[in-house]
Amino acid sequence: MSALIEGLFNGISIGSVLLIAALGLAIVFGLMGVINLAHGELMMLGAYSTFVVQNVFKPLGEPWFELYILFSLPVAFIVSALVGLALERGVIRFLYGRPLETLLATWGVSLILRQFVRSVNWLLVISIAVFCLFFFGGMTILKRRSNWERIRNWAITILLVISSGIAIAVGFLIDRVGQIALTKPWFSARNVDVTAPTWLRGGLKVLGFQMPYARLFIIALTIICLLGVYWFLNRSTWGLRIRAVTQNRSMSACLGIPTAKVDALTFALGSGLAGIAGCAVSLLGSVGPNTGQNYIVDTFMVVVVGGVGNLFGTVVAGLSIGIINYLIGSGTLALIFTSMEGFKPLVDFFLFFATSSMAKVMVFALIIAFLQVKPAGLFPQKGRTAEL
Amino acid sequence: MSKLGRRKFLLYGSIGIGTSLLLKACGSSEEVSSSDGTTVSDSGEDTIKVGILHSLSGTMAISETTVVEAEKLAIEEINTAGGVLGKQIMAIEEDGASDWPTFAEKARKLIDKDKVATIFGCWTSASRKAVLPVFEEKNHMLWYPVQYEGQECSKNIFYTGAAPNQQIEPAVDWLLSNKGKEFFLVGSDYVFPRTANTIIKEQLKAKGGKTVGEDYLPLGDTEVTPIITKIKAALPNGGVIFNSLNGDSNVAFFKQMQGAGLTPDKYPVMSVSIAEEEVRQIGTEYLKGHYAAWNYFQTVESPQNDQFVTAFKNKYGEDRVTNDPMEAAYIMVYLWKQAVEQAGTTDLEAVRKAAIGQEFDAPEGKVKMHPNHHISKTVRIGQVRDDGLFDIVWSTQRPLDPIPWNQYVPQTKGYGCDWTDPNKGGKYKVEGV
Which member of A318, A335, A342, B6 has the greatest number of CB atoms within 10 A? Predict the structure, then answer.
């Protein structure tokens, strides 16, 4: 009995990590149809936000430091949501309905983000800030002119050249002054160390085994996020608009829904959820520039198996992949068949797959087989799919 | 949705170029400052060129850049002291980019185009295996600084990291007599952990220990719940865990071990890939009380080590730590220098001959180059303490002689390696074994 509960708990805890990582993608890829390969990097940014919040809270002393994780959740959400917003406004909105280009562009963005956290320092941040100040400031001023439409193209080009020139010059100037503190990278390429507060270390002893607090926390967080997203999509005005736009974009636009705003908001929401996921996985694993890469394949797998455009499918897919992965990988399945007579070859078969890397092979094989039978996932959308 | 016009295309293109220029401007200034001090002025015949071939980018860059720093430190010290044969050493750095074919290509470039006297390089066994054919073809010379799985003995490589009998085997012996007979083996899924675990299993069989389970995690994977379940099932009352995980998986492994209640007093973990640098990244809270086996720890007490640590911190910063591969990289530059001085020339055959028998008072203790191109090394076991450094709990009295061909594995039992005798070479049957 206790073994059964332990197995179930472990399976669910693996599944909840998959689920929380995939939740943001279920919105971005599932509802909007954007193949966002930078999703993992948005998670990574969430994890780095957790690291920064942790370091801010460290000098505050004991009672505060214990609570840093609760503050890092909204910070991670906001940071990732803002980056997601910039990504949507800056890149993705030009590429709706062109999945291949989106794929390449977001892959590029993921490389940029990874390199950004490796090399970000004050110098870089100041240069970028100066660039943005002059470029966007200049644009706002020029936009007031009556002949803006006419001068638009060359004005932007000139602004671009001027502001990048100034930014580079400022960068060089600061570099010459030679402040070491300014050119020292914030994080560098090394992994950083996120330490869970004491109340999330250790675990709860039940029925002879220990439930890690970090896992319980992630399961609770996943449930809260799920309920929040469900409420937002089905009970709020913006949620209604999002659903309307995903179902029929042109009809919604005719009815006066600001589709561009809805797109931006949806994307930001999905990105913010990735940030929360990043905060959650920092309790379990490492935080480094490549953190996101470890999750990106799994998240797409969950969304595809669940059925694109269906939140409920994502939940079922996440949990079942988690449980199956655990049952095979931990050798529990082999153990079950050992107790029955006449299943010798089957036991050997499962024992062969009872290592972590082989379990992954088996799960992927099962998913491929499953998608042959149900190409649209567990819960395919009925009727006409959303047009973009 | 929107068609890109020519104007727009130009606009976005220039944005892209502008941004990349901006990034480059900030990036390049960094590179210039970091390579200061090592590129000694090239004045024709007054310099000896050597190659440094490590990953400066990609996943391995984190580890390999520290080794490059140690090599540059040694070169700088030698140059300040007057150089080799009265000439200054000039280091030519190439980036292997964590990509094994690139390593081979860059090795070829260093040998053919730059005509270097020798090359210091590589970290992973995969990169070493990739460059080996190049060095054999050109009959050139590589110095390799990292502990590895053994089962190799090339005429063209000098190995200054530990062979298995200088790290893994003493660690297993120590665990057997101090921590328990039942072992669970965990490793990343590639050549080093699999070979190491083969050796450990054979050794346990020979010494009366027992392997109760083994598992391999794909590189970079962070989900270790199934492994923890298996450990608990196989060792319900505690036992030894032998860990050869590499990289990110270590963080996940130790964090989740603690969450599941597997503590170092009942489940001590012996790691062979975690040194001072990694401890800082994983977090001392999770590692405290666990063990690691190396030849060198920063906490080794000797005047040579004090000098090495001080020199390193002065050059690279007070908050930096030194570790085993860095120390091995540091001493191999000195061993090469001594060999060149004894040979009186940088001629490859002469240096190869002179290198054998070279002794050096290294930070880890005395080391000596053996005819099998490996060096004798002291073995130490350390326990992680509060400040992230290691308490040395055990060490061998004397340096152990290297045995590249493993004597527990049936396929290589009874084989040896001796490059001083033309009849013996890289793999010969030892008489009377």
Answer: A318
| Per-residue model confidence as pLDDT tens digits over A307-361 | 877 788 899 999 999 999 998 888 877 777 777 766 777 788 888 888 888 888 8
Q: Are residues A273 and A315 in the same domain?
A: yes
Is residue A338 domain-shared with residue A264, that is, in the same domain? Answer: yes
Give the single-character DSSP code of B83: -
Residues A332 and A365 placed together within one structural domain of the fold: yes
* A51 falls within a domain: yes
Give the span between the Cα atoms of A185 and B56, in whole angstroms: 16
- Taking alpha carbons only, the member of B223, B316, B385, B120 closest to residue A188 is B316
Residues 159-178 of B with CB under 8 A from A: none
Q: Which of A75, A39, A291 is nearest to A187 (CA)?
A: A291
Residues 59-98 of A with CB under 8 A from B: 94-98
Looking at the structure of chain A, the number of domains it has is 2
Cross-chain residue pair B61–A356, CB shorter than 8 Å: no
Substitution target from A4, A356, A362 for chain B, most B beta carbons within 10 A: A356
Whether residue A173 is found in the same domain as residue A68: no
Q: Which domain holds residue A294?
A: 2-120+185-373
User: What are the chain B neighbours of A16 within 8 Å (beta carbons)?
Assistant: none
User: Residue A193: which of B189, B215, B282 has the nearest Cβ?
Assistant: B282
- pLDDT tens for each residue of B27-53: 433 333 333 333 333 445 689 999 999
* A384 within a domain of the structure (yes/no): no
Q: Which of A160, A184, A208 is where one domain is finished?
A: A184
Residues with Cβ within 8 Å of B297's Cβ and at least 6 positions away in sequence, in order, are B275, B276, B323, B324, B380, B382, B389, B390, B392
Do B281 and A193 count as a contact with CB atoms less than 8 A apart?
Answer: yes
Strands B88-95 and B47-54: parallel
